[in-house]
Amino acid sequence: MKLEQNDSSLIFSTTSIPDVFFTEYLSQANGDYIKVYLYIYFLSKYNKDVKINDLSKKLEMPLKTIQDAIKYWEDDGLLIRKNQGFIVANLQEIELNKLYKPKITISASDMQKVAENKYRAKAIDTINNEFFQGIMSPSWFGDIDLWFKKYAFDEEVMIALFRYCFNKSALHRSYVATVAEAWYKNKIKTFNDLDLYFQKEEKVKTIENSIKKKLRLSRNLSIYEEAYVEKWNITYGYNMEIIDIALKKTAGKFNLSFEYIDKLISDWHERGLKTPEEINKHLENQKSKPVQTKDNSNKNSSANYSQRQYKDLNSLYSNI
Question: What residues contact 158, with CB distance under 8 A and at least 6 apart?
Fold first, then answer.
């Protein structure tokens, strides 16, 4: 016997989506993927046997988009693959498991200390109200507790961490964790540490913009080029005035290379040159040095020639 559902019943039915979908998953997925998930979630109530081709036609999406969306939600754990078809995972159960996993690594005494710390509790409350409109997912509380413990940030730094990611429109758990790790590696613990770090970053960014302007680059610097600039400014302590001397040495070069500029600047640093005056004096001295040559006779040829011999490669870069 085949039973069919009366379509008019759809008028009175509802599909309830747990709030954690909106707090944990909505902002990270693109619109097409969300559309596919919501429709699959809706169909799962009726245990429908739906083919991917049917989804493609119903949602008016390319088949590739449907497949990518299913793969995305499967990787996220919201769809569980079976021998035939998928199971729509229980979102609340997923978040409950996330909530209890951090407690495995935090002792009861540690949790009690966090609860008793009114400043930390106030910081978490500020994060919840300012960036999550007061409906922060419970799993975030466990993450914040762990980050306090792992990175030893003070409360102002933790709030600044979420504000930084919020302003970047990237308030995703993976991104927040990545920024937190970067701050930790830069020895940031207090708000004063963070302020000094931002000042250094601002100086580097200003130098990067000056370099782009002087080299007439219409693109942004790559992450590798940015790493060079950071090394010149933060590690070597060179300002734009010194970097500009190296840039002038690239004038007329057909193939501009940051590696070449780095060799020049690194050579100056290795020589202990710290000021523009010292560097310019060094360059003048290098120009005045005679170039050493050595005559070589070729017994198999009637022509004699002189071959340049370089004994100091650092001098070679200085003279280019």
Answer: 123, 127, 144, 147, 148
